């Protein structure tokens, strides 16, 4: 993840842009004019849809994004350009075509349910003149891109001539093209580096009923051969991602909760493009895309995902390295804020944890049971020495933090240099503050910032001091 956080690839998205428009309200009566519901609109929201959702995902990951498309010369087109400019996306390669309608999909939602959707758009192929303008524009800048994405929503922008022209220009400049395909005929994508069809799309395109690994392999090989792909890939929904380079490889999904799969395909192709641009292997890329999809399906509506969210999600699955769980004050502040927005209960405890033993582990397991996220404040070496004496700590802070972070019960470790974690507790304002049972009747630092205090008894006979005494006794 560290390498990905440094990456800022320049990625071009070409495809069908649209505006997703939402009318939110309540419904309490039926119209006297007709047997239809009357919705009292409370608010309106708009977000980028179609290829625009791919752009949003790339932008959230930290990419530099440019876009190329064809829209109408209308109010919706002006609104769409404004939305792109507001997030810093280069829209200079967007062409307006006379007589074309910019896509806008309006949804009426009441009591969290979609009541009605109405669309205003053109679905005919763009003109050959528009194709030529796009290709001329891309020819001048193609070598400046790290990756090109073709996001096909079947609205006419990615007609055959444009797809073939873009792929030819990109291949001449050794720029990979990734395609989120549409329809049953993938021939116009021939020469792309990889496609991201889902299982249903792959079945339609290959005519192979995918029902086991053998048929999956045949479908992947057919796509690879007929479309002349660098790597063949099929997304398998809850079963993850399958790829074929020189052999079949399966990457299981890592979604914990699925609330909405809207836009998950956009997240997958955006994360694949981002990771490949950063130099990751296809195996690392597929794993990264699965993590990104796991985050986004846990959200409502077309959503995006950030690298920090992916890192936190990976940490929650306990599939990351220990150092990914060790955070600074500023990092844990951002994590806590995001966690609260997602309704998570934050638990905090602290200590020296010099020589990790079973008493520590059981204490932390109980602490974690009080909420969703356990944050452990860890005394620095200097503060341990001030509290425990000049012969302590036995283990340096870096080692203590790494061991704590490896525990399943611990979500994050935050080292602090003061004698008490007062400032850290003040910043986190935990839902539950946990201390040892020996604090019964005593003042506990930071309780004024916590919603609740819990005292947990230690395991009898288990302590760092007793462990040290035993070691010293055995060496006498």
Automatic annotation (TrEMBL):
Enzyme class per UniProt: transferase
Pathway: Nucleotide-sugar biosynthesis; ADP-L-glycero-beta-D-manno-heptose biosynthesis; ADP-L-glycero-beta-D-manno-heptose from D-glycero-beta-D-manno-heptose 7-phosphate: step 3/4; Nucleotide-sugar biosynthesis; ADP-L-glycero-beta-D-manno-heptose biosynthesis; ADP-L-glycero-beta-D-manno-heptose from D-glycero-beta-D-manno-heptose 7-phosphate: step 1/4
Gene3D superfamilies the UniProt entry points to: 3.40.1190.20, HUPs (3.40.50.620)
Catalytic site positions: 266
Record GO cellular component, one term: cytosol
Binding site for ATP: 198-201
EC identifiers of the protein: 2.7.1.167, 2.7.7.70
Known partners and oligomeric status: Homodimer.
Matching HAMAP family: HldE
Protein's name in the database: Bifunctional protein HldE
């Amino acid at each position: 993840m560290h390498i990905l956080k440094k990456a800022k690839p320049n990625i071009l998205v070409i495809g069908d842009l649209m505006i997703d428009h939402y009318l939110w309200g309540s419904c309490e009566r039926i119209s006297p004019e007709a047997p239809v519901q009357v919705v009292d609109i409370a608010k309106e929201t708009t977000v980028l849809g179609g290829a625009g959702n791919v752009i949003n995902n790339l932008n959230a990951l930290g990419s530099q994004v440019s876009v190329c498309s064809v829209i109408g010369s209308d109010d919706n087109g002006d609104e769409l350009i404004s939305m792109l400019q507001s997030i810093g996306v280069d829209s200079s390669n967007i062409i307006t075509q006379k007589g074309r309608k910019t896509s806008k999909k309006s949804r009426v939602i009441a009591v969290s349910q979609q009541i009605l959707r109405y669309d205003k758009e053109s679905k005919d192929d763009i003109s050959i003149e528009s194709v030529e303008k796009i290709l001329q524009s891309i020819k001048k800048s193609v070598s400046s891109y790290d990756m090109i994405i073709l996001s096909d929503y079947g609205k006419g922008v990615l007609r055959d001539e444009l797809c073939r022209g873009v792929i030819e220009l990109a291949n001449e400049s050794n720029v990979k093209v990734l395609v989120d395909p549409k329809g049953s005929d993938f021939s116009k994508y021939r020469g792309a580096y990889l496609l991201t069809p889902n299982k249903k799309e792959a079945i339609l395109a290959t005519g192979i009923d995918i029902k086991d690994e053998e048929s999956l392999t045949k479908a992947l090989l057919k796509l690879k051969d007929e479309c002349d792909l660098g790597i063949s890939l099929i997304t398998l929904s809850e079963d993850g991602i399958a790829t074929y380079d020189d052999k079949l490889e399966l990457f299981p999904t890592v979604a914990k909760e699925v609330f909405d799969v809207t836009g998950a395909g956009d997240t997958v192709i955006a994360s694949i493009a981002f990771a490949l641009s950063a130099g990751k292997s296809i195996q690392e890329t597929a794993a990264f895309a699965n993590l990104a999809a796991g985050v986004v399906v846990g959200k409502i509506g077309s959503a995006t995902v950030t690298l920090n969210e992916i890192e936190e999600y990976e940490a929650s699955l306990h599939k990351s390295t220990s150092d990914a769980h060790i955070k600074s004050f500023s990092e844990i502040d951002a994590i806590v804020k995001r966690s609260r927005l997602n309704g998570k209960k934050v638990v905090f405890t602290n200590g020296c944890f010099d020589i990790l033993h079973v008493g520590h582990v059981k204490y932390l397991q109980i602490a974690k049971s009080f909420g969703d996220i356990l944050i452990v404040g860890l005394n620095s070496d200097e503060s341990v020495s001030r509290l425990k004496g000049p012969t302590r700590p036995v283990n340096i802070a870096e080692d203590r933090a790494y061991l704590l972070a490896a525990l399943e019960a611990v979500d994050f470790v935050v080292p602090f240099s003061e004698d008490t974690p007062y400032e850290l507790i003040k910043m986190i304002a935990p839902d539950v503050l946990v201390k040892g049972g020996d604090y019964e009747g005593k003042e506990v630092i930071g309780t004024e910032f916590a919603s609740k205090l819990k005292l947990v008894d230690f395991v009898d006979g288990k302590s760092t001091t007793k462990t040290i005494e035993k070691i010293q006794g055995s060496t006498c």
